[in-house]
């Protein structure tokens, strides 16, 4: 069985492999930060906001979402980055990813020999 520190290191390494990831958090259901890194390292204020959002989803009117449907993933998208939030093993996983816009592609000028 993995020790607590080994498990944290394994979770952190797997989150760091996500392409364009610039920050991550793993939280308990009550909002305690288990692991964090990048731009979200030790960001307890952000962790509280995420827990509030997840709690809010539990209070959605069941008439709007029949059969006790629960969310698989919440994505919050901004022009240059996004947050992806999901629940797994009674933990809240959050990844902040950089979004690469097609309009920011570098256009090379053709070389002209004279």
UniProtKB/TrEMBL annotation:
<dbReference type="GO" id="GO:0071986">
    <property type="term" value="C:Ragulator complex"/>
</dbReference>
<dbReference type="GO" id="GO:0005085">
    <property type="term" value="F:guanyl-nucleotide exchange factor activity"/>
</dbReference>
<dbReference type="GO" id="GO:0005764">
    <property type="term" value="C:lysosome"/>
</dbReference>
<keyword id="KW-0458">Lysosome</keyword>
<comment type="similarity">
    <text>Belongs to the LAMTOR4 family.</text>
</comment>
<dbReference type="InterPro" id="IPR034601">
    <property type="entry name" value="LAMTOR4"/>
</dbReference>
<protein>
    <recommendedName>
        <fullName>Late endosomal/lysosomal adaptor and MAPK and MTOR activator 4</fullName>
    </recommendedName>
</protein>
<dbReference type="GO" id="GO:0071230">
    <property type="term" value="P:cellular response to amino acid stimulus"/>
</dbReference>
<dbReference type="GO" id="GO:0032008">
    <property type="term" value="P:positive regulation of TOR signaling"/>
</dbReference>
């Amino acid at each position: 069985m993995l020790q607590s520190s080994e498990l944290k290191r394994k979770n952190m390494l797997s989150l760091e492999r996500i392409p364009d990831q610039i920050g991550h958090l793993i939280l308990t259901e009550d909002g305690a930060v288990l692991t964090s890194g990048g731009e979200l390292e030790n960001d307890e204020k952000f962790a509280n906001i995420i827990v509030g959002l997840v709690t809010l989803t539990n209070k959605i009117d069941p008439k709007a979402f029949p059969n006790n449907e629960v969310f698989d993933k919440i994505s919050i998208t901004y022009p240059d980055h996004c947050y992806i939030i999901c629940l797994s093993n009674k933990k809240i996983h959050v990844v902040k990813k950089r979004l690469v816009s097609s309009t920011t592609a570098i256009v090379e000028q053709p070389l002209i020999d004279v």
